[in-house]
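ingest -> validate -> predict -> emit
validate: passed (alphabet ok, no gaps, 163 aa)
predict: started
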Amino acid sequence: MLLPALLSSCARAQGALAPTGVPPASEGFAPIDQSDRSYLPDVEPAALEPIINYVDGLNLALTGEFLYLRSTAISSCDCLAIADRLAKLFKSATLVGGSYQLKRVDLAKDGVNQKSFAVVIDRSDIRKIDKSSRQSILWSASTIKNTFTVKRIGKGWLLSDIK
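emit:
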């Protein structure tokens, strides 16, 4: 049982498992260009989770599911107003299509217990259909730019403000 593990580790060390004819830089790992600002900022990953989860929650909210969106923020956060507006809208209308996509996150202010991020989110076209009249309105795609503030709450992070 020990022999196969030992032999396979020796083979890996000697490069036996490396694909032939493929340069080392192209083995699925692209070098990170530090001048490219499209990558997430270098902060504690847990501080970014509320932002990523918020965008996921926005996508679920378009289907009428608000629990996940509301779990990303403290109850007084203005970012939750969209959940209330959509809940009210779903009483008289249906939304078809649409999605939110996180495009960029840049660190604006870095504190131990509070951080602010400049966030860019793209929203695709969404069609609103009135349930009684069957009238359809297209909400055109848009780019949303906000500053998201996250606060450390206990051992985790939650959104506390969006401006």
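The domain at 42-162 is CATH 3.10.450.50 (Nuclear Transport Factor 2; Chain: A,).
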